[in-house]
TrEMBL record:
Residues 173-336 form the PurM-like C-terminal domain. It comes from Actinomadura soli. This is Phosphoribosylformylglycinamidine cyclo-ligase. One of its GO terms (molecular function) is phosphoribosylformylglycinamidine cyclo-ligase activity. GO terms for biological process: 'de novo' IMP biosynthetic process; adenine biosynthetic process. Belongs to the AIR synthase family. Pathway: Purine metabolism; IMP biosynthesis via de novo pathway; 5-amino-1-(5-phospho-D-ribosyl)imidazole from N(2)-formyl-N(1)-(5-phospho-D-ribosyl)glycinamide: step 2/2. Transmembrane segments: none annotated. CDD domains: PurM.
Length: 341
C-alpha cells in the first residue's frame, strides 16, 4: 500500500506547525476580524468601512525573493516573515492606505513544524507592528519540486483609503521637498546580486568585515523596516503629497513612479552616507555605481514628497517615531525623472 506520506507529504507535521504558530498569529489581530471556525477563509467585518465617505480598497501582493536562500543557509527563519510584511504592507502605504489584513502562502519541500512556525510567527509579529491583521494563510508541501530545506513565501494585503485622500503624482508641486526615511539594511531587493557577490568574492556569510559591527550573514538578514504607521502619521500632518517605497530598481526609479510627467525630483547624494553594508558589497564585488543605484535602496527605504512649509514638522514627526530621516532633495520642473546629483 502506498500512502501520501510515502509521496513525501507529512500531514501530521503540517498540523503540528499550525499548533505551534497559533499563539503568535493571535497577536496579529484587529477588532474587525471575525472568527471562521472552519478555517477555510479569513473574515473581516466590512461595516468598519462605514466611517468612510467613499472607501477605496487597496491591495498588494509580493514575496521576499532570493533572500530566502540566505535564511535557509543560515537556518534563521523569523526575519524573512517580517520582510514579507514590509514588502506587501508598505506598498499599500504609498497611496495613503491604512493596512487592514494580510494572508500568506508558504511553499516548502518538507514541512518542518518549527521552521514554518518561525516564518509565520515573523509574519504575525510584523503584522502587529504594521497595525494589520493576519487573517489566514496556506502552507504547501512540494516534495520532488523543492528540496527538503527549500522554501518560498508570498503574501497579499488589503488596506483602505478615503477616495479624496489618495496620495500620488497628481498632488505633487514644484518646490516640494523630498524626504528620505532610512532603511534598516538591504530590505528584500537585490539579493540575486548579493548571492552572486558571495559566490565570486572573498566574502562569506560567517565573515565579519572590519566595516561591519556583526557577521555579514546577520547583517544581510536584517529585517525590512516597516513604515506603514509612520506614513499614516505623516499623512496626518496634512502636507504629504506622495510616497515612494524604495524596492527593486533603486531610489531614482521608484521615486520617479510618484512624479507627474512635468516634474523631476533632484536628489542630493551628499545628503546622507550610504551604510557600510552597501559599501562592503560594492567593494568586494567590484560593482559599478550605476548598478548599485539601480539594484539597492542604498540606505533609503521610503521617500515622502511633502509641501515645503511642512517639511520640518514631518521630520520632527519621524524623529519622534524613531525613524532616521532627512531632506533628500526637491521637486523641479522637468520630464518625470528622479536624478541623484
Amino acid at each position: 500500500m502506498t500512502s501520501y506520506e510515502d509521496a513525501g507529504v507529512d500531514i501530521a507535521a503540517g498540523e503540528r506547525a499550525v499548533e505551534l504558530m497559533k499563539s503568535r498569529v493571535a497577536r496579529a489581530r484587529r477588532p474587525e476580524v471575525v472568527d471562521d471556525v472552519s478555517g477555510f477563509a479569513g473574515l473581516f467585518d466590512a461595516s468598519a468601512l462605514m466611517r468612510y465617505k467613499r472607501p477605496l480598497l487597496a491591495t498588494s501582493t509580493d514575496g521576499v525573493g532570493t533572500k530566502v536562500d540566505l535564511a535557509r543557509r543560515l537556518g534563521v527563519y523569523d526575519t524573512v516573515g517580517h520582510d514579507l510584511v514590509g514588502m506587501v504592507i508598505d506598498d499599500l502605504a504609498v497611496c495613503g492606505a491604512e493596512p487592514l489584513f494580510m494572508t500568506d502562502y508558504i511553499a516548502c519541500g518538507k514541512v518542518v513544524p518549527e521552521r514554518i512556525a518561525d516564518i509565520v510567527g515573523g509574519i504575525a509579529d510584523a503584522c502587529a507592528l504594521a497595525g494589520c491583521a493576519l487573517v489566514g494563510g496556506e502552507t504547501a508541501e512540494h516534495p520532488g519540486l523543492l528540496e527538503a530545506d527549500e522554501f518560498d513565501l508570498a503574501g497579499a494585503g488589503t488596506g483602505v483609503v478615503e477616495a479624496d485622500e489618495v496620495l500620488g503624482p497628481d498632488r505633487v508641486r514644484v518646490g516640494d521637498a523630498v524626504l528620505a526615511m532610512a532603511s534598516s539594511g538591504i530590505h528584500s531587493n537585490g539579493y540575486s546580486l548579493v548571492r552572486h557577490i558571495l559566490a565570486t568574492s572573498d566574502l562569506d556569510l560567517e565573515s565579519q568585515p572590519a566595516e561591519l559591527d556583526r557577521p555579514l550573514g546577520e547583517a544581510l538578514l536584517t529585517p525590512t523596516r516597516i513604515y506603514a504607521k509612520d506614513c499614516l502619521a505623516l499623512s496626518g500632518t496634512g502636507g504629504v503629497r506622495a510616497f515612494a517605497h524604495i524596492t527593486g530598481g533603486g531610489l531614482a526609479a521608484n521615486l520617479a513612479r510618484s512624479l507627474p510627467p512635468t516634474m523631476d525630483a533632484v536628489l542630493n547624494r551628499s545628503s546622507w552616507e550610504v551604510p557600510a553594508l552597501f559599501r562592503v558589497l560594492q567593494a568586494h564585488g567590484a560593482v559599478a555605481q550605476p548598478d548599485m543605484d539601480t539594484t539597492f535602496n542604498l540606505g533609503v527605504g521610503m521617500a515622502a514628497i511633502v509641501a515645503p512649509d511642512t517639511a520640518d514638522e514631518a521630520l520632527r514627526v519621524l524623529a519622534a517615531r524613531g525613524v532616521p530621516a532627512w531632506q533628500l532633495g526637491e521637486i523641479t520642473a522637468g520630464t518625470g525623472k528622479a536624478t541623484l546629483t
